[in-house]
Amino acid sequence: MENRRLFTFLMTSLLFMILWGQYLQPKFFPEKKKPKVAEQQVADATKSDPPQAIPAEAGDAAAANVLADSSEPAMPAAAAIIQSYPSQELTLGSIDPESGYALAVDLTSAGAAIESVWLTSPQFRDLQDEKLQARIVGNTPTPDRTFSTAFAVIDQQLAKTGQTLETANWKLASTEQNEGGSTATFEYEAPDKSLRIRKTYTLPKLKLIGKELQKAWRDDAAFYTLQVAIEMTNLTDKQKSLEYEMQGPVGVLLENQEHTSKYRDIHIEFIDGTKGETTAAATVRNYVDEIEETKGQSLSQKEQFDFLREDKEWTSAFRYAGVDVQFFAALIAPLDDRPDEVRSDSATKWIERTFPVLIWTDPTEPRKSDVSIRMASNPVVLKPQGEGDSVTHKFAFFVGPKRRELLDPAPMSAGQVLNYGMFGFVARGMHYLLDTFYTWGLPYFLAIISLTVLVRGCMFPISRKQAISAARMKELQPKLTELKAKYADDREKLAKAQMELWRKHKINPIGGCLPLFLQMPIFIGLYTALNSAVDLRLQKLLWIKNLAGPDALFRLPFNVPYLGYDFSVLPLCTVGLFLTQQKMFMPPATDEQQEAQYKMMNMMTLFMGVMFWHQPAGLCIYFIASSLWSIAERKLLGAGSMTPTSGASVEVIEPDDNSKPTAKLKANQVAPPAEGRKVPGFLKKLLDAAQTARDQADQQREKESRKGKKR
């Protein structure tokens, strides 16, 4: 009985549902149809690129369906509007040298980002076409742009349109130009009307002309600094929390790729004492290659970013971060006035993490790839509208030449970018002297020669001692050969006899190497200073078009392995002078072992010539001038003379045993002049005469002193 009642209820309910759906609802409760215009506009909005605006009166419910995320509550229908703004481009600053600007910054409404940055100073022309100014930022084949900014809360709303905040056009809200500089403001309002983002670029201008303007181009870091402000405003009556991710400098200029010794590097230094880091482009490329090899497939750019964000990030608060090449740098620094303790605290710092990114990969050479950084913010809390609803983060963007006057000042304090190396204090000094000679009116090739003369002149006392030591060793070479022949089977006695001979004649065998160690910091400092001197760029001399690169007399029709296509003369001159010095000043080989050593030294000199092939012409000029100085110095000192005093003599001192020397000179006997012995040079004679005069004066004073005591 109970089963029959249940069956009857189910059948009756099913029959009622069929009658309701087929007859009763269509007739008595018809469904209101959506306007066809609204449906068509919704379809257009999902397909258009960039997205088109959807008028509210055309169907609010349809627009809301396009924007709503199924995992979140539906947005208010009247607020769900995707704004479409025209594509616009504008330039802050100018490449006109008389404009008072140091930069020309091309901005685009796509992502409200920086398209490119040019230097204004006539000194910085493009290496390939000197009619154009050098473009320091924006040299990349990809659509990536500097300072494009992603906000996840807005990108989620734009997801179904195929756009992101980094690719969508922003509204150009305002532009302003006055005596102090130029300003441009872009803004974008979230489709749900809950958030407004404003991005303001400000470029300074100086009212200077002539030499004052040129000095500012060299020394004023603020002149090369663009200020970027990101303002986040809450448009609702509820507290909001959001995060953003910002793109660093893209496409930093990599020039003279065939010969440069430095490619794109990422630099970052921190405010909490954490050691700064430098990451090369090849290293970032290796990061991506490793993960692609592990996964067995190529990664999209988003997948690369996600991997690098989690595995290769820097989480300390940075003082600056950016990319540099041999002569130029593009660096970003937060303009945060809070104390360092607050700025570096994990909960209150602006940027939660910074990580390297691979923008574009060179298919042949990983080190030529384009790399940059991205900065992911901590959550930004916005109070309800009218209660401190706006938060602004400001950043300084430096784009300019790598000069200590520009990189040392705050907020960058980017000494690491100069990359002066172990003997940085020497390199800085050499750089300062080079600039000083140039400001005195000397062209740079003469400034290099003057610097060489100054350095070698200061090192003359060391060079003189080295020359005297070499001359003594050369004169004692026959006696050392005799000792080697006599004690060929007893190394201990040979060493003892050699040391006694050197002691008797006041020769320190290590002393000849000591001047080399003293000269090493100066040599390395000069090398670093000349290799990184941006002012040598495009400086000309005879056939040389660029002292900051190889002299490249002509282009070969074929590629020489390692050397490339350019044929350079200065490296050949440098090596030729090195070999001449070795032949003139090194004593002749006395045995097969020494002969083999000399051959090895010649091979090393030729190898240095290969290394010099890609070095700047300015550096080769320094080595040529230094070699000529050395040759002239040795000639004037008389490299073949025996000792600094004519009364010295050569004597073989034997160890205590029963052996007898094969040859021996008395202690005070003057050695007879050997056949072919070189005559002391003019400068050597003057020095010896001065030394003799000093000795005679000392002796006279001692005699007078003794007479006084007797009285």
Give the strand order of the largest sheet, numbering strands 1, 2, ... along the chain.
6-7-8-9-19-15-14-12-13
Tally of strands: 21
From the coordinates shown, what is the CATH architecture of the largest domain?
Answer: Distorted Sandwich
Mean pLDDT reading: 79
CATH topology of the largest domain: Beta-galactosidase, Chain A, domain 5
Largest sheet: 9 strands, antiparallel
- Output the number of helix runs: 19
β-strand percent reads 15-25%
Count of the domains: 3
The low-confidence parts are 1-7, 29-79, 639-679
The CATH class of the largest domain, by name, is: Mainly Beta
Structural class of the secondary elements?
alpha+beta
Give an account of the 3D structure.
- Mean pLDDT is 79; it is low at 1-7, 29-79 and 639-679.
- The protein folds into three domains: 89-419, Beta-galactosidase, Chain A, domain 5 (Distorted Sandwich), CATH 2.70.98; 431-637, no CATH class; 685-711.
- The chain is elongated.
- Helix 2 (36-47) packs parallel to helix 3.
- With 711 residues, the chain is α+β, with helices and mostly antiparallel strands.
- The chain has 19 helices and 21 strands.
- Helices cover 39% and strands 19% of the residues.
- The strands form five sheets. Strands 6-7-8-9-19-15-14-12-13 form a nine-stranded antiparallel beta sheet. A four-stranded antiparallel beta sheet has the order 1-2-3-4, with no helix packed on it.
- The protein has helices at residues 2-28, 36-47, 60-67, 152-158, 210-219, 281-295, 301-311, 340-344, 404-407, 415-418, 424-439, 444-458, 460-486, 491-504, 514-531, 570-585, 592-612, 617-637, 682-710; strands at 89-93, 103-108, 113-119, 135-137, 149-151, 171-178, 181-189, 195-204, 225-234, 240-242, 244-247, 265-270, 277-280, 318-324, 328-334, 351-360, 370-377, 380-382, 390-401, 554-560, 564-567.
